[in-house]
Amino acid sequence: MRFLITAGPTREPIDPVRYLSNRSSGKMGYAIAEAAIEAGHEVVLISGPVHLDRPRGAAVISVSTSDEMFAAVRQHIARCDILAMCAAVADYKPAKVSKSKIKKRSENISLELVPTRDILASLPKDRKYLVVGFAAETEDLEANAQKKLHEKNCDIVVANDVSAADSGMESDQNEVEILFRDGEMRKISRASKKIISRDLVEYFEKYFEKRLTKKIV
Ligand code: C5P
């Protein structure tokens, strides 16, 4: 199968030297890319700025902003069977990017933010590939993940609680809940992102097959 995986944060420029971003390390997306390669799949990895070695055997496309990630996904989507949107795409970006460095002053300043384009929500509803969204939540994990599954029209949502310091973002460990569109749910308890990724790749493969055989819509 052909996997298209996004990973890491995006950077939304404020001026030539500053940007808005988040704490995503890219570890989960890179681990999924490695697990998919290990399982014999073809992988295209669209990566935001991270400090990780490129997974051997993956075609890596480096991007920085949410707009660049949007364009890269759109460019490669037609050739994939499974899209795993693991990236922590910024939800907002500055309304204007200053061409010159904003000078320091003594008074308060405010920054107007506009929503970024939602890559997941922009995908066509009628499609052959499987869409996996990720939900990083600090509260009401299950309810928010369920909402995301339907609102963003995903086939699967992988949800993790990022409020725990030793799990989720930046950590080598994670624990996740997997919500499927047909109503099924699975949990993977705390383990390394490497182990979790192997299970995830298997779940994705199985659900893809299940959908192909039209057992679900
Ligand atoms: O809405 P929220 O950002 O919490 O949703 C997370 C999921 O949506 C992730 O799979 C992320 O990659 C995706 N996303 C996206 N485009 C955005 C923001 C998030 O595809 N602009």
SS element count, helices: 4
Chain-averaged pLDDT: 94
How far apart, in Å, are the first and last alpha carbons? 20 Å
Oligomer: single chain
The helix content, as a percent range, equals 10-25%
Strand content: 25-35%
General shape:
globular
Q: Report the structural category.
A: alpha/beta
Largest sheet features: 8 strands, mixed
Q: H/E element string?
A: EEEHEEHEEEEHEEEH
- The radius of gyration over CA amounts to 18 Å
Q: What is the count of β-strands?
A: 12
Sequence of strands across the biggest β-sheet: 5-4-1-6-9-10-11-12
Give the ligands present. cytidine-5'-monophosphate
Unreliable stretches, pLDDT < 50, 5 or more residues?
none
What features would you describe in this structure?
The chain is α/β, with parallel strands linked by helices. It is 25% helix and 29% strand. It has helices at 27-38, 66-76, 141-151, 193-212; strands at 2-7, 12-15, 18-20, 42-47, 59-62, 82-85, 92-94, 113-115, 130-137, 156-161, 173-180, 185-192. Strand 11 (173-180) and strand 12 (185-192) form a beta hairpin. Helix 1 (27-38) crosses helix 4 (193-212). It is globular. Cytidine-5'-monophosphate binds at residues 66, 85, 87, 89, 91, 116-120, 133-135, 148.
